[in-house]
Amino acid sequence: MKFISTRGNVEPKGFIDTVLMGLADDGGLMVPSEIPQVSAATLAEWRTLSYQELFLKIVTLYTNDEIPYEDLKQMAYTSYGNFRAPEVTPLHKVSDSLHVLELFHGPTFAFKDVALQFMGELYSYISKKRGEIIHILGATSGDTGAAAIQGVRGKEGIKICILHPHGKVSKVQELQMTTVDDSNVLNLSVEGNFDDCQQVIKELFGDLDFKSRYHLRAINSINFVRILAQTVYYFYAYLQIDGSADKQINFSVPSGNFGNIFSGYLAKRMGLPIRKLMIATNENNILERFVNTGEYKPGGFTSTYSPSMDIQVASNFERYLYYLVGEDSAKLSAYMSGLQREGSITVSGADLQRVQADFSALGVKNAQCLETITKYSGESGYLLDPHTACGVAAYEALGGPDETTITFATAHPAKFNEAIQLTGIGQEFPAPIQALFEMPQHQTLVDYDKAEIVRQLQAFYG
Fold first, then answer.
1. Exposure string (b/e) for 152-168, b if CB count within 10 Å is 16 or more?
2. Do the Cβ atoms of 103 and 96 come closer than 8 Å?
3. Among the listed residues 373, 260, 360, 251, the one whose alpha carbon sits nearest the alpha carbon of residue 306
4. How far is 39 from 64, CA to CA, in rounded Å?
């Protein structure tokens, strides 16, 4: 197994070098040179595995034996040993046709913990084995930053800087990042939106001299390991459904940066018999427009009740486009050049039909999001966070009568109490979240100015 760039101008890499590269040196995204296949017989054998055991089965398909199995096993069990649910990602049955996969039982109460707890262990392992300094640089719309910081805080040989849009994440998300007072953590609060933060990150990773000089490593879902770790819970959820081999199983996935839904696409390409992949977005509905019309065109930014999906430029879209064009790097590169030059990409004809066979999508308005939270709290006593509510709304709109849908609960509702309060529903905060409000914050407010951000990084990384 080797890994290649979507744009075709990087020599094939092994697993660890792919982890360290993050964004490909040619500006593309790293993908496996071939996708491992999982047979129906193998799926049946995996049905009784624990989450950690399943994780090892899937991840070792990609690691090329570069990491001894016992070392990988230790990382997996350490990564998921501090989750509050023994199943790691428990499946909750809401109705005969709807199940909710709870991805918020990690230390920061969000789905990003599932991948980033492992990535923290992996980076620490690589740093020690290779004797390399690792400087992590990332941007967050809220949850990635907290999970990434939690994954590497205090670890020797690693420093982490996270950019987040000032005033555009929830208060709990902000506190989870900025109450960390470890010397290897820097929080930059940027006067701008998430797309601004992400653009700076991409430009810095694209500056190969700067990237090399400061040992920059990626924690965002541009790093393939994030995608790989997330495929595990698709398999795990599917295998928890009784008689799943005989049922039509859909996944409805709240999606902003296209990473979580692309993990499902990868799982399906590996052989997981998913019927529909439903993309749930909010009023920043670039992905819905693409699926329905074939036009991918970033538009105006809108702040919503589901701020982790307040994204117009979805990083992982390039990975999907690569497979859509038949793994043709030249064609993919032409599309991406056109996006940079003209501000949009349009697919039509057979390509659009393929998109609509791969995905369905719904952009959920703020009012519908709150209505869904209220409805499920009243009817089933189950409290949805606003992102999960978008996923449930997509299930209602796009699911068929004889189908079973698994919707991802991507965060604990306590992380987004500003939206929950608007429904009139009260909730009790988990103790670790409540404690955040009494802690001092540590963050640096900066303008959306690349030069200023670079100065901050140079001082921090040394």
1. bbebebbbbbbbbbbeb
2. no
3. 373
4. 20
What pLDDT is recorded for position 248?
Answer: 87
Chain CA centroid to CA 252, Å: 14
In whole angstroms, give the CA distance from residue 292 to residue 299: 16
pLDDT of residue 122: 96
Query: What span, in angstroms and rounded, lies between the C-alpha atoms of 245 and 266?
Result: 19
Please give the C-alpha separations between residue 132 and each of 45, 135, 227, 431, 437, in angstroms, as whole numbers: 39, 10, 24, 37, 36
Q: For the chain, count helices (H), then strands (E).
A: 20, 15
The token pair at 359 is 């995905």
Q: Say which residues have a Cβ less than 8 Å from residue 174's Cβ, sequence separation at least 6.
A: 164, 441, 443
Identity of the amino acid at 314: A
CB 418 within 8 A of CB 167: no
- Element spanning 190, H or E: strand 185-191
Q: Report the sign of the C-alpha dihedral through residues 67, 73, 74, 80, in that order.
A: positive
Q: What six digits make up the tokens of 131?
A: 């004797």
Q: In whole angstroms, give the CA distance from residue 72 to residue 67.
A: 6
pLDDT higher than 90, residue 141: no
User: Is 168 a known active-site residue?
Assistant: no
Residue 273 phi, psi (nearest 5): -80, 65
Interatomic CA distance for residues 100 and 113, integer angstroms: 17
What domains lie within the chain, and their CATH numbers? 91-107+225-422 (3.40.50.1100)
- For 125, phi then psi, to 5°, come to -60, -45
Q: Where are the beta strands (DSSP E) in 332-442?
A: 345-346, 359-363, 404-409
Residues 48 and 64: their CA atoms lie apart, in Å, by: 25
Catalytic residue (one of 13, 112, 155, 268): 112
DSSP string, 194-259: HHHHHHHHHHHHH-HHHHHHTTEEE-STTSHHHHHHHHHHHHHHHHHSTTGGGS-EEEEEE-SSSH
What is Dmax (Cα atoms) for the chain? Answer: 59
What percent of the chain is modeled with pLDDT above 90? 91
Which of helix, strand or coil describes residue 104? Answer: coil
| Amino acid at residue number 152 | V
| Residue of 367, 383, 57, 81 lying closest to 236 (CA atoms) | 57
Q: Is the pTM of this model over 0.70?
A: yes
Q: How confident is the model at residue 338 (pLDDT cuts 50, 70, 90)?
A: very high
